[in-house]
Design goal:
It comes from Corynebacterium phocae. Helices cover 23% and strands 34% of the residues. It is built from 3 helices and 10 strands; from the N terminus they run E-H-E-H-E-E-E-H-E-E-E-E-E. The strands form 3 sheets. A 6-stranded mixed sheet has the order 4-3-2-5-6-7, sandwiched between helices. A two-stranded parallel sheet has the order 1-8. Strands 9-10 form a two-stranded antiparallel sheet.
């Protein structure tokens, strides 16, 4: 099988094909649990694509986003995650069951912040990620795979495209 240019044999590589399998698996796990969200909130930016895929797979049209910054570069984080603008209208979640979706529970600090913040308004909050890391402080309700490896996601593995047509590392 031909691998994409960004594929590294010493890393966990989530290609688009594997992502399709992972998102369907997660969606099936959510349906099998008997719990069904009214709203799905994707954690920007890594959770956007999985949140959309799960929303389509289980038929949820009410989608939201919450912007959180924690990683500032590969392997470099802020001391704690911070909520960025534009802010999610948390009042609109009152009385609703909310599924928070992200790409990975690495340290777990981002999910811990978001889930606990949304629990202040929503009736019930659960979480789903593609990957969990062994050292996470937050255990999501649903996940596809556990890995200790650095993860190359299909949507963020390539360099950023700049206005002058060049590329720069970092996402």
């Amino acid at each position: 099988m031909n691998q994409p240019d960004w594929y590294h044999p010493d890393r966990e590589n989530l290609t688009w094909d594997i992502f399709g399998e992972a998102s369907r698996y997660l969606s099936q796990e959510i349906v099998n649990s008997g719990w069904f969200p009214d709203v799905i909130v994707g954690v920007a930016r890594g959770g956007f694509i999985p949140a959309g895929a799960i929303g389509y797979a289980i038929g949820v049209k009410e989608m939201g986003a919450i912007n959180v910054e924690f990683y500032t570069d590969i392997g470099v984080t802020l001391p704690e995650p911070i909520i960025l603008n534009p802010q999610l209208d948390t009042a609109s979640l009152e009385g609703k069951k909310v599924l928070v979706v992200d790409d990975v529970a690495d340290s777990g600090k981002t999910l811990d912040l978001v889930v606990n913040m949304l629990k202040e308004t929503a009736a019930e909050v659960k979480s789903a990620v593609i990957y969990i890391k062994p050292e996470t402080i937050f255990q999501p309700d649903f996940y596809w795979r556990k890995t200790a490896e650095w993860i190359n996601f299909a949507w963020s593995a390539l360099p950023v495209i700049t206005a002058d047509g060049s590329y720069k590392e970092g996402h």
